[in-house]
Every structure is written in structure tokens, then in C-alpha cells.
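Hi P.,

Sorry for the delay on this. The queue was packed all week, but I finally got your sequence through. Input first:
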Amino acid sequence: MIYIREFEFYNSDGCMLAVPCDMDGGTFGATLEDAAESAVDWLFETITDHLITNKAVPGGKLGHEPVHGGKVIAITVDASLGNVDAMTAADAARMLGVSTARVAQMCASGKLVSWKDGSKRMVARRSVEARLAEAPAPGRPKKAAQPMEA
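Then the structure:
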């Protein structure tokens, strides 16, 4: 689905801010072009996060006027769950070196970003890669050593 959101682009402390006109958040860049590219990425990620969590995507009104003395520019993205780089839960389990049951637990606890696609559980690749980057040690965390009394 195509989503159009207006952003106000304006200079602040030597960088170009990109603030959505009717959504919370925003991004920035060194130049207007850089900030516009960042706004596209930000908008795609924000919308797909809403789609994954079954939340309504905010905003969508057009015709905003600048609030910070900048330029209002419409940014368009094609965002759907089909556009999210994802893998099956089984593939995520193989990549993480854990069981599919453990992947299901991590999805349920929010440690992995996932959604159902029919009968398949899909896991966002970025969340698997983030988990790998954390490199948690296998097994249960050890209890903190208790100080010895003197």
C-alpha cells in the first residue's frame, strides 16, 4: 500500500531536520536530499512497525503549512508486511542456533519482531540480526555472586 505523509524540513544547528507533520518522531540529514532519504527510511520503518503490531497508522492529512519556517514536502513509501525483509520462524531458529519453540518464546516476549502470515510465523530479519549482534551467552543467566560476610 502507498502511504503519503508530509514532513517539514528545516535547518537546526547545522543539520536538516525532517519532522512529520501529523506523526510523532522524525529524522535528520546533512542536506535536504540526505534528510529526505532518511525520512523515506523513517516512514517505511514506522509504518511497518505499526502494521506488524496491528496498530492503526497515524497521520495522512495533506496540506500542512510550515511550523518552523521550513519547507513542507510529501514523502511517499510503498509499505506492507510483504515488503519487510523477513524469514520463517524455522529459519530464524537455524540462524540463532535455537529451537523453534525458543523463537516462539522470543517472539511472544518481544525479543524478536514477528507476525503471522496465514499459518506461518514470520520474523523480521533486522530483529534476528540485532539478537545476533547482542550475542547473548547460551543457557540461563547466572545469578550474581553473593558477597561473603566477614
